[in-house]
Amino acid sequence: MTSLHARISSLKADPLASSIHPSLDFYYGDGERDAALDRFYRRFVSPGDLVFDIGAHVGDHIACFRRLGARVVAVEPQPLCGHALRTIYADDPEVTLVEAACGAEAGPTVTFYVNSENPTVSTVSPEFVRAADGAGGWEGQVWDSEIQVPTVTFDGLIREHGTPAFTKIDVEGFEESVLAGLTTSVRALSFEFTTIEREVAQRALERAAALGFDRFNVSLGGNLALEYGEWVSMEAMGAHLAALPHEANSGDVYCLHAD
């Protein structure tokens, strides 16, 4: 069995995967960051749980969820990232890769806007691309090609794979559409937001509340710490997101379902 380190090293040696080499360097091989991820997500994920990772990119969160003993369904539409995930997790039967975008409706294809130099911000959302154009902190970001990718829904993933204990949603401005494809009850999820598209975050928050989520928290900038000691209401979370300075840039909203 090839080690995780060896599989990642093989990807780093592949010139065709050069655009994801920075992500591989950042997300893998940092033991302190791995430990911090595990401490953070242990509050949501237990051994034997099913976890959905919607927008898996190169799979660092998959690695965390697997260390915590969960089965993972990883949803990722980018062919290069899909290749990386197949390579990294080739020997792990508890990781299932769905090579598609997740949205409000299932369909044969949707247009996916690729940022070749920074694939982590590639997106299905043209509004996200427009919002980033000229925005502070987003200088130099270029979505330079388009591909067609298949689409699935959150409900469809549940029908095929089961109900997750936790779902991470990181889809660059398409979070509201992912939640629009969910009509059944799930225990906990997170969705990313950016300060260039606060209105998308607000609509995603309102959709989460309509789905029965009633307790909310937030982490900013990947700092792996919740801002609130006590979980807050949808209204309080919406006010918090609206008041953030532009420089906060991004973070993740965490949602717990009513008991």
Number of strands: 10
Please give the domain count.
Answer: 1
Order of strands, main sheet, comes to 3-2-1-7-8-10-9
Shape: globular
The low-confidence parts are: none
Oligomer: single chain
Strand content: 15-25%
Specify the helix fraction band: 25-40%
Fourth CATH level, the homologous superfamily? Vaccinia Virus protein VP39
Outline:
The chain is 34% helix and 23% strand. The protein has 259 residues and is an alpha/beta fold. The chain contains ten helices and ten strands.
Describe the structure.
The chain has a single domain (30-108, 152-257), classed as Vaccinia Virus protein VP39 (Rossmann fold, 3-Layer(aba) Sandwich). 34% of the residues lie in helices and 23% in strands. It contains 10 helices and 10 strands. The strands form 2 sheets. A 7-stranded mixed sheet has the order 3-2-1-7-8-10-9, sandwiched between helices. The protein has a 3-stranded mixed sheet with strand order 4-6-5. α3 (31-41) packs across α4. The model has no long low-confidence stretch (mean pLDDT 94). Residues 53-197 form the Methyltransferase FkbM domain.
Topology:
Layout: H1 4-12, H2 21-27, H3 31-41, E1 50-54, H4 60-67, E2 71-75, H5 79-88, E3 95-98, E4 101-102, E5 107-114, H6 126-132, E6 145-152, H7 154-161, E7 166-169, H8 175-180, E8 188-194, H9 198-210, E9 213-220, H10 234-243, E10 250-257
Parallel strand pairs: 1-2, 1-7, 2-3, 4-6, 7-8
Antiparallel strand pairs: 5-6, 8-10, 9-10
Helix pairs in contact: 3-4, 9-10
